[in-house]
Design a protein that fits this description.
Order of helices and strands: HHEEEEEEEE
Radius of gyration: 26 Å
InterPro entries: N_methyl_site
Distance between the termini: 87 Å
Helix content: 25-40%
Strand content: 35-45%
Protein name: Prepilin-type N-terminal cleavage/methylation domain-containing protein
Shape: elongated
Number of strands: 8
Structural class: alpha+beta
């Protein structure tokens, strides 16, 4: 009696391979779409994200002070300072960058709020932080 040789794949194996391939392709397309969306993100949207991050951080802090165009505060019993350096708004200790490609920036207090004013690509922005 001859043994049957099976060459090729069964229908279920072929359908499973097609399903996995289409799933990976779909995820790849979604990833590319998301990457293109962030690459072409509006400058104003990036500024709003940075301001939201700053607001969240300052909402959790206390003892805010303006010292020579820098904003200092206490967060988790540690003194932090926001300042403008090398076309960036950064936080120390360390060097955490919140915004980049800024021409100039100033932190100031007006009435009961703390504000940041900055100039980016010949446009000026003024946001309340706290």
């Amino acid at each position: 009696m001859k043994k049957l040789k099976r060459n090729g794949f069964t229908l279920i194996e072929a359908l499973l391979a097609l399903f996995i391939t289409s799933l990976v392709s779909l995820l790849g397309c979604m990833l590319m779409r998301c990457a293109l969306h962030f690459a072409h993100m509006d400058v104003d949207t990036q500024n709003q994200f940075a301001v939201l991050q700053l607001r969240r951080e300052l909402a959790q802090s206390n003892d805010l002070k303006i010292e020579s165009d820098c904003l200092s505060y206490i967060l988790n019993h540690e003194k932090k300072v926001l300042y403008f350096d090398k076309h960036r708004i950064v936080k120390s200790p360390g060097y955490e960058i919140y915004m980049e490609q800024i021409d100039e920036a100033i932190f100031y207090k007006k009435e009961d709020g703390y504000y940041v004013w900055f100039k980016k690509k010949n446009k000026t922005y003024d946001f309340e932080l706290y």
